[in-house]
């Protein structure tokens, strides 16, 4: 009897694990910081290597460096105006990522980006 109750829980956990493992973050993502500053990223994953770009405050394209993506976690560095800003993130769903920055120009912060079609 207990096994019959356990089977749906195990199946749900397997489905969630499969969805995260199959998450494709390649493509264009947009969001805003403090509902004021629009941001956009273009991500490309090759194995566990994450590359891509964003636009800097001056409008120039900034290439992501030291990027990686594994399971539902990602990290990369943004070289902006002779500084290196370390970014980390967590995939929350197939179309939503939460990014975190420690010690940036506006202090520690997090913001949501969403995949565009």
Task: Please give a structural write-up.
The protein has 117 residues and is of the alpha+beta class. It has one helix at residues 2-21, and strands at residues 27-33, 37-46, 49-55, 61-63, 65-70, 73-80, 83-93, 96-104, 107-115. The chain has one domain (2-115): Lipocalin. It has 1 helix and 9 strands. An 8-stranded antiparallel β-barrel has the order 1-2-3-5-6-7-8-9.
Question: Can you summarize this structure?
Answer:
By secondary structure, this protein is of the alpha+beta class.
Topology:
Blueprint: H1 2-21, E1 27-33, E2 37-46, E3 49-55, E4 61-63, E5 65-70, E6 73-80, E7 83-93, E8 96-104, E9 107-115
Antiparallel strand pairs: 1-2, 1-9, 2-3, 3-4, 3-5, 5-6, 6-7, 7-8, 8-9
* Average pLDDT score: 85
Count all strands and give the number.
9
Shape: globular
CATH level-two architecture? Beta Barrel
In whole angstroms, how far apart are the ends? Answer: 46 Å
Q: How many DSSP H or I helices?
A: 1
Secondary-structure element series: HEEEEEEEEE
Largest sheet descriptor: 8 strands, antiparallel, barrel
**Uncertain stretches:** 14-21
**Order of adjacent strands in the largest pleated sheet:** 1-2-3-5-6-7-8-9
Number of domains: 1
What is the structural class? alpha+beta
| CATH top-level class | Mainly Beta
Reported by name, the CATH topology is Lipocalin
Rg: 17 Å
Helix content: 10-25%
Q: Strand fraction band? A: over 45%
Notable traits:
117 residues, 1 helix, alpha+beta, globular, Lipocalin, 60% strand
């Amino acid at each position: 009897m207990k096994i019959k109750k356990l089977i749906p829980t195990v199946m749900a956990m397997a489905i969630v694990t499969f969805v995260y493992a199959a998450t494709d973050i390649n493509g264009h993502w947009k969001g805003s910081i403090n509902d004021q500053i629009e941001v956009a990223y273009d991500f490309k994953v090759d194995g566990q290597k994450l590359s891509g770009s964003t636009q800097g405050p001056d409008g120039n394209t900034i290439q992501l460096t030291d990027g990686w993506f594994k399971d539902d976690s990602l990290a990369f560095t943004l070289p902006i105006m002779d500084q290196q800003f370390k970014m980390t993130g967590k995939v929350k769903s197939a179309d939503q990522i939460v990014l975190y920055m420690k010690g940036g120009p506006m202090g520690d912060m997090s913001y949501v980006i969403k995949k565009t079609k």
